[in-house]
Design goal:
Blueprint (H helix, E strand, L loop, with lengths): L3 H20 L6 H14 L24 H10 L4 E5 L2 E4 H17 L7 E5 L4 H12 L3 E5 L5 H11 L3 E4 L4 H12 L7 E4 L2 H9 L16 E6 L9 E5 H15 L6 E4 L6 H4 L1 H8 L2 E4 L5 H11 L3 E3 L2 H8 L13 E5 L6 H10 L1 E9 L4 E5 L11 H8 L4 E2 L5 E5 L15 E6 L6 E2 L3 H7 L5 E9 L5 E6 L4 E3 L2 E3 L1 H9 L4 E11 L3 E10 L8 H9 L10 E4 L12 H10 L5
Length: 584
């Protein structure tokens, strides 16, 4: 075998060469990307193993990992079981497999070949589920665009990804056509537009054959999807997923979520976000049923749970907040426990407690687009069941431990790269290392190198590590407030605010202060019937429950801006706070 140092230098050299090749203009599309990645993986394979007596790698013992296999297995093991339900539309796993083969065949007739990008611009629809299999079956790379983007941003992302085809929700056709009109003014050839109407989509399917021979990945490192982050820059970063990473993280998600063959998954999270947090492929791996809803509301959630005996659902904190604050007329009494997978910002313990009281069991996960969605989960300990509800909720709000597919998660000093003390107090940056970390940012070598500095993926999240190894997120690095030289976690202040009976939603940012540098400023939405609550009352409430340096100095009552995944857009609130001027 190669000496450790030699192997390290080989890997470093290959990574650098691959990343540089990825960013150069002649690697501007995924055809060249795929060839570069295949060569990169070969470079990492030592020659010495081939000389070991009796060993050989061949088709009998090595097949590139890919989620495509999940659908193929379910089409046999669960052929007659329900795969998709959308209103009156219902398909079995056998039918879904046939439809995906026909769609893959039809895509090749549209000109899609290995490494070509196929985009979607849509809310949740059964067709988006099918495209997650059909596009990689055709050798393509799927790019799911955020359904709340405008024409300018859609145009920019289509140009960057060089998508050849785009499937568009009928409700978004005007925005998509506006984007294509803008593209036509550039040197980029606009993609073929396929409206996601029943007639257009089914007509395309009819041109394909279910005898299509799948174009499997040459290497499991080949790209399967590109996901644009919901960043605040002029153009979001393009995160590349591999077949291998998608396969591994899907299985990990199925395990931590407890998805089984008889599970029924309600699509109350967007499929365009991290490929539906990979629950989309996880449900196929286990042959679970998928109940697709396009518009998420409290009534639609409860109605579908009752109608389809839903066992699993995803919900960002804002959706859970909507559920616990819903009116009695919108709710239905749950006849069984519903497993909820939640990610994004840490939900306040109060919301977790109320969800449990209503019959939902919440599984807290943590990750980023760059980690294929879930990377950790708050693995529950049986002894915690005996604790009071508020204590159980507090523990459940922690981000927990790495899941089985992630190699390592740690909280480190960003400068020294040393692990912080596991005392629950020392703050550092959360970092990841493993097979379910992105391949890199497409066409952005500088950002890729910065993200992987020191051999770890830097999340940009600040957290602490507890004695039992569980991590807890304290804030985003860009959100932490430094007041008089002291760090203030906006999450901690928000948690106190959410414990006030009048608060529906809250977000805390720093406001300029000529004396302290900055001080906490809260933007709050009140519940119906509490319109009489004023800023002084909330400031006093927080001051009684927090160290005085963390207490609020400013409260603004207004609706909070959110992105399409339900995350509160704090960068907008920071601008508003800055526009208020210095407090002192």
């Amino acid at each position: 075998m190669f000496p450790p140092l030699t192997m390290t230098l080989m890997i470093k050299h290959s990574l650098t060469r691959f990343a540089r090749a990825l960013s150069h203009s002649h690697y501007s599309n995924f055809n060249q990307y795929t060839r570069s990645y295949s060569k990169f993986s070969q470079d990492l394979e030592p020659e010495s193993w081939k000389s070991m007596d009796g060993l050989v790698r061949c088709s009998a013992n090595y097949v590139p990992l890919s989620p495509i296999g999940f659908l193929e297995r379910s089409s046999k093991a669960y052929r007659d079981n329900t795969s998709l339900v959308y209103g009156s539309v219902r398909h079995t796993w056998g039918e879904t497999h046939q439809r995906c083969l026909k769609l893959a065949s039809a895509l090749t007739q549209l000109g899609i070949s290995r490494g070509d990008v196929v985009a979607t611009f849509s809310y949740n629809l059964p067709q988006i589920y099918e495209l997650h299999f059909a596009v990689p079956m055709a050798g393509g790379v799927l790019c799911t665009l955020n359904a709340r983007l405008d024409s300018v941003m859609v145009s920019a992302l289509l140009r960057h990804s060089e998508a050849k085809v785009i499937f568009v929700d009928s409700q978004l056709l005007d925005i998509a056509r506006g984007a294509l009109h803008l593209l036509a003014k550039t040197e980029t050839k606009p993609p073929i537009l396929v409206p996601l109407t029943d007639s257009d989509y089914e007509s395309l399917l009819s041109t394909g054959t279910d005898q299509f021979e799948i174009l499997r990945p040459h290497s499991e490192w080949d790209p399967i999807t590109i996901n644009y982050t919901s960043g605040t820059t002029a153009r979001p970063k393009a995160v590349v997923y591999s077949h291998r990473g998608a396969y591994l993280n899907s299985l990990a998600t199925a395990l931590l979520f407890g998805v089984r063959a008889r599970s029924v998954c309600l699509w109350s999270m967007p499929m365009f976000h991290c490929n539906g947090w990979l629950v989309l492929w996880a449900s196929a791996a286990q042959g679970a049923a998928n109940i697709v809803i396009k518009k998420v509301s409290t009534r639609s959630i409860f109605d579908n749970i009752a109608m389809h005996n839903v066992t699993h659902m995803g919900a960002v904190p804002t959706v859970m907040n909507m559920i616990v604050n819903s009116s009695a007329s919108e709710r239905r009494l749950l006849q069984h426990t519903v497993e909820v997978l939640t990610g994004g910002a840490s939900p306040p313990p109060q919301i977790l407690g109320r969800m449990e009281e209503m019959g939902f069991r919440v599984n807290q996960i943590y990750g980023l687009t760059e980690t294929y969605g879930a990377a950790t989960n708050c693995a529950w300990k049986p002894e915690w069941d005996a604790l009071p509800l508020d204590e159980r909720s507090r523990l459940k709000a922690r981000k927990g431990l790495r899941h089985l597919a992630m190699e390592e998660v740690d909280v480190k000093d960003t400068v020294t790269m040393e692990s912080v003390r596991a005392d629950g107090e020392t703050i550092g940056e959360v970092m990841f290392r493993g097979n379910t970390v992105m391949s890199g940012y497409f066409k952005d070598l500088k950002a890729t190198e910065e993200a992987f500095k020191g051999g770890w993926f830097h999340s940009g999240d600040l957290g602490v590590k507890h004695e039992d190894g569980y991590i807890e997120i304290k804030d985003r690095m860009k959100d932490i407030i430094i007041s008089g030289g002291l760090n203030i976690s906006t999450v901690e202040v928000e948690t106190v605010l959410y414990s006030h009976e009048a608060v529906f939603e809250a977000a805390v940012v720093g406001r300029p202060d000529s004396h302290w540098g900055e001080t906490p400023c809260a933007f709050v939405t009140l519940k119906e019937g509490f319109e009489g609550v004023n800023a002084d009352q909330l400031i006093t409430f927080c001051r009684d429950r927090l160290p005085h340096y963390m207490a609020l100095k400013t409260v603004v009552f207004e609706e909070l801006p959110k992105n399409s995944t339900g995350k509160i857009q704090k960068f907008i609130l920071r601008l508003r706070a800055k526009a208020m001027g210095s407090l002192s």
